[in-house]
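Ticket #4471: structure export looks truncated?
Reporter: QA, pipeline team
Priority: medium

Steps to reproduce: submit the single chain below to the structure queue and open the exported record.
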Amino acid sequence: MKLKRRRYINNPGYQMKIVISFVLITFFANIISITVFNHFALKKLEDMIWSTHISANSTGDIINSLFIYVNVADFFFIAVTLFFMGRWMIRKTAGPLNRLSWYVRNMTEGDLISRIELRKNDEFQDVASEIDIMRESLRGKFKSISNAYDDVSRLIGELPAAGSTGERILKQSRNIIGCIEKLDAEANTLKF
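Actual output as written to the record:
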């Protein structure tokens, strides 16, 4: 059996949306911080050019503190933005994961009828589809086992009375043995 690699968890469009959002946010935050830094640095240097007393030995003495303030502000802006992006990602994925968990819990309690229903734009559609395939397969196997069990029970209930002929009892016994073998074969399809 050849295994085909599949993409689970979420679709590539969702992943690209997250990556592009992160890249754009950091790009624009850095552009803004560079612009703010240049504006204030040039203003400080301009003021220094026209002053009569210069107490700095180099331009670094003048703009180092400005450089630190702008970078700290940039860092906090990006951190806050990433925090809200993280919350958005959690909300976008937590709902479908909770629904999947609820359906799987119901399956473990014996509900093999209910299909997993996620909203159209929810993530994890592939996972839900695979779980539904598993549910249908288990449902079919348990249905076959149940039918075979019902056949055995019915045939045992139809056993002829003690005064019946041996041929009739033998024929009914063979039918019961055939149904038990079928039940055994169905049960052996499950590996546990």
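Status: closed, not a bug. The export was complete when the record was re-opened. Leaving a note from the reviewer for reference: The two ends are 21 Å apart (CA to CA).
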